[in-house]
Amino acid sequence: MKFSTVLASSILAAGALASSCHPSYPCCNGCDVTYVDNEGEWGVQNNNWCFIDSGKCHPSSCKFEALGYSCCSNCGPVYFTDSDGKWGVENGNWCGIPDNCGNSGSRTTTRTTTRTTTTRTTTTRKTYPTVTPSFFSSGNIYSNGQYQNEVQSSVNKLSGNLQQQASRVKYTPTAVWLAWYGAPGEVSGHLGAAGGNTAVFMMYWIPTRDCNSNASQGGASDLNAYKNYVDSVYNSFRSHSNSKIVVVVEPDTLGNMVTSQGNENCRRTAVIHKEALAYCINKFGSLNNVQVYLDAGHSAWLTGYEDETAEIIKEILDMAPQGKIRGFSTNVSNFQPIEKEYAYHTRLYDALEKVGVKNMRFIMDTSRNGVDISEAFAKTKTWCNLVGTGFGERPKGNPDTVNMPLLDAYMWLKPPAESDGSSQGSRADPVCARSDSLPGAPEAGSWFHDYFVQLLKNANPQF
């Protein structure tokens, strides 16, 4: 995990093209139905919704829909005739020849033909209970002055169009990381600077932090020291009762509980980590001006572990009876694409419902997932300053309420271009020495100019 040393397009996106089929969506080229509502039948084309052309897909002369087959788009050739009518083949599938085609193109065969019956099914999007709005949905998100200064240091080194683009990154909202012993003393200053904007903080001081790697190890000396740290932050949050505060609790910790118990360092601290997370949630979740999200790894890490993850979450929440939690953060400091992350959200949501944890919501770190590098990541699992990444979607509340109703926000949780770690120094990590890790990186949390330039050049959407 990476941290600050001083202070971490959906498929089925709505269309906007009027057509003869729908005032806001294009006609589908085909007739495959994905979703049905009171307007009619919907399909998916080029990763966007389209409206089924009923005139083409349901002609009055076609009787084969009732049998589970589509009508052929033309009148032949006829490959088979039975008591139901004449049959053709399109795209490797049987289709019915409309009766009004007559005998044109007939090529009737008397050979015995086996026709496999298939049933086309339609699916509906799951509906989720309405919850109170998140703090991301009202007003702006706080732009961290620390990150502004870091970006400016790179702006000063650039020129021309790249410098102009870099200057536009400067005020993008990023989270404030509480990741060093003096960070609680800076919280009030950030809340004062945020004013009416939503301020986002990352708690990253758990004992034996980042237990499965070297780059960001550290944290509180023991559980009591961690509780004192939490109490100090809590007091600042409580004294700014009019502030809107989001706090993300301890990135990577939950994921390591699920998958890293083969590591003696992680196994030895699992009980302490559960107690620490519960204490943190219990304190912050008792405040009305704070919304708490527990970090839940990312899709490339915990896919397939949703049930086990939900069980551990349930255990932690049962240990925090005074605190409420809004949901979970994912993709912190990682690169997984939006579609895969949201699919993971829905699976984790379902797993949580099964253990009685209901109505959870999610925020997704989009600071470095503008380029889909998931295939390359799957091969090497290189999390350290990965080559080829780019800035992703800008922070935004409720980015797609139709297709991603569980998603509270896109957010740059890890300030992008702060190094993930280094292959040298006291906390050198071998992952940072791989060929697909950007060379020359400073230690975790330090500004990495070359990384910033890579992210900027590969940004999607561009600046």
UniProtKB/TrEMBL annotation:
Alphabetical UniProt keywords: Carbohydrate metabolism, Cellulose degradation, Glycosidase, Hydrolase, Polysaccharide degradation, Repeat, Signal
Residue span(s) of domain CBM10: 20-53, 61-98
Transmembrane segments: none
Pfam families membership: CBM_10 (PF02013), Glyco_hydro_6 (PF01341)
Enzyme Commission number(s) from the entry: 3.2.1.-
Molecular function GO labels: hydrolase activity, hydrolyzing O-glycosyl compounds
Annotated region (Disordered), positions in chain: 416-437
Protein name (database record): Glucanase
Lineage, broadest ranks: Eukaryota, Fungi, Fungi incertae sedis, Chytridiomycota, Chytridiomycota incertae sedis
